[in-house]
Write a structure and sequence with these properties.
Blueprint lengths: L2 H7 L19 E15 L2 E12 L5 E2 L1 E3 L5 E4 L2 E10 L2 E7 L2 E3 L22 E2 L4 E4 L1 H4 L5 E2 L29 E4 L12 E9 L1 H5 L7 E11 L3 E5 L11 H6 L4 E6 L5 E10 L5 E9 L6 E7 L6 E7 L15 E5 L2 E5 L17 E9 L3 E10 L8 E8 L18 H12 L15 H12 L2
Antiparallel strand pairs: 1-2, 2-10, 2-12, 3-9, 4-5, 6-7, 6-8, 6-13, 8-11, 13-14, 14-15, 16-17, 17-18, 18-23, 19-22, 19-24, 20-23, 21-22, 24-25
Length: 456
């Protein structure tokens, strides 16, 4: 059956809605439920998990589900499902692990989960409007049906066929979500909270520009250790929200900002600033690449020269099982009024360097002796393209205010500052420069008089 005939068959409006989600024009898949997680075992200090995903087509046409054409030729017009696990601990929200992608192969077109008006598509080659299709955690962790992430363009949904890894299996960790046992141990992580995420990527959903609601997250509880920590979903399905949203669920003071790259995909930037009560503030940032193929290779925060920063940190999530990407940490530098995290190499030098690719979340943090104010941070884009690096307005350390005529630094502008300026002039000290030309000369005396009369 051709795509056109499917679209015509489903042109009649379908009266169904999932709670909080409106029916969309075109194909629109969401993870209506995520289930599991399935525990597969432990090896070398890591445990393997997979997450079940039940898809709902909330669009008004069929969602393609072809893994082969009518003549038996393989096809790539079907969804792939990503799987991730996150943790909130001590005010920081990080990604603990990611898995390879489950390739869909047959749409069952059930009624109920997405509403009660399923318009089923025949032959399993599409998911009709209002219909749902379940993939259990066990099925999504079956290694032979899992493919690599590197060859999937999450912005368009394109991937080659046959896909890398088709039919291959390995040890218990291979291709599955890999999480360090220590990162799940309740004794080592008191009061930590955990979350799982399932995400769909598929071509016709992306072509309809309906691909920003394809991820769903849900809270996880940690049970006993037996061949790995037992994980169970406990919270409700947060349908259409990616995993980074869980940080705000835990801490309402977290702010979230969407960054949409023209002709590409979406990033989510989350941030939280905490007053330490000792004249310093803790700045926490997380950036999740939802579906940008161009990826990111820089995160730049403006830092005034008078602001002191410390406890600078970074965290990413590792690739594994033969994905070609490097896992080297980003390089941190400060200078020119900026604090910068960036990929170890550029795209031109090494296309497989560590970049913030789709389906992953990275963290950036530091402590500063300046209170927060709104400012523009820069999200540098990794792959070449027409759109420039993106800026987003969030909380950053406020620039310091210098009172030029207060040359003795006592916090007051008074005649005693004149004597201090004379001393600075004689010693060629920085306080001498009152007109900002970088020099210390007699012209600065007239500038000091003007600054003194203007006050601070």
């Amino acid at each position: 059956m051709s795509y056109l005939s499917k679209a015509v068959r489903c042109s009649i409006p379908v009266a169904f809605l999932m709670p909080g989600l409106a029916m969309a024009q075109g194909a629109d898949v969401v993870a209506g439920e995520i289930t599991g997680p399935e525990r597969w075992g432990t090896l070398n200090g890591f445990s393997a998990y997979s997450i079940g995903t039940s898809s709902c087509n909330i669009g008004d046409v069929d969602l393609l589900w072809d893994d082969e054409l009518g003549d038996g030729t393989p096809a790539n017009l079907h969804p792939v499902m990503g799987q991730n696990i996150f943790r909130y601990k001590d005010g920081r929200y990080t990604q603990l692990g990611q898995g390879w992608l489950k390739h869909a192969f047959f749409a069952l077109n059930f009624n109920g989960l997405c509403g009660n008006d399923c318009d089923p598509a025949p032959n399993g080659s599409a998911l009709g409007p209002g219909c749902w299709d379940p993939y259990s955690a066990s099925l999504n962790g079956r290694q032979s049906g899992m493919g690599a992430k590197f060859e999937v363009n999450a912005s368009t949904g394109f991937h080659p066929w046959p896909y890398t890894g088709d039919g291959t299996s390995g040890n218990v960790l291979f291709k599955r979500i890999q999480v360090r046992n220590d990162d799940l141990d309740p004794a080592l992580n008191p009061n930590a909270r955990y979350f799982g995420e399932g995400q769909y990527v598929t071509p016709d959903d992306a072509a309809a520009d309906n691909d920003d609601n394809n991820a769903t997250y849900r809270e996880i509880s940690v049970g006993n250790f037996s061949n790995g920590w037992q994980l169970n979903f406990t919270g409700p399905n947060r349908i259409g929200d990616p995993g980074i949203f869980a940080w705000k669920e835990v801490d309402p003071d977290v702010e979230l900002v969407a960054v949409d790259v023209p002709s590409d995909g979406r990033f989510w930037v989350a941030y939280r600033v905490t007053d330490n009560g000792d004249g310093t503030w803790r700045y926490e940032y997380a950036v999740q690449n939802l579906n940008s193929d161009r990826a990111a290779d820089q995160f730049i925060v403006p830092i005034d020269s008078g602001v002191s920063v410390s406890n600078i940190g970074f965290k990413d999530v590792d690739y594994h099982s033969g994905e070609p990407f490097d896992n080297d940490d980003w390089v941190i530098s400060q200078g020119g009024g900026d604090l910068t995290w960036e990929s170890p190499q550029t795209f031109t030098r090494n296309p497989n360097t560590n970049a913030l690719r789709w389906g992953t979340m990275y963290n950036f943090w530091f402590t500063a002796d300046a209170a927060p104010e709104m400012g523009d941070v820069t999200l540098g884009l990794f792959k070449p393209g027409t759109a420039a690096d993106q800026t987003v307005s969030i909380l950053v350390p406020a620039a310091t205010t210098v009172c030029l005529p207060d040359t003795n630094g006592d916090g007051m502008v008074s005649p005693s500052d004149f004597n201090a300026w004379i001393v600075a002039f004689n010693n060629q000290a920085p306080e001498c420069d009152q007109n900002g030309d970088g020099l210390c000369n007699p012209q600065d005396f007239n500038a000091w008089i003007i600054n003194y009369n203007n006050g601070c």
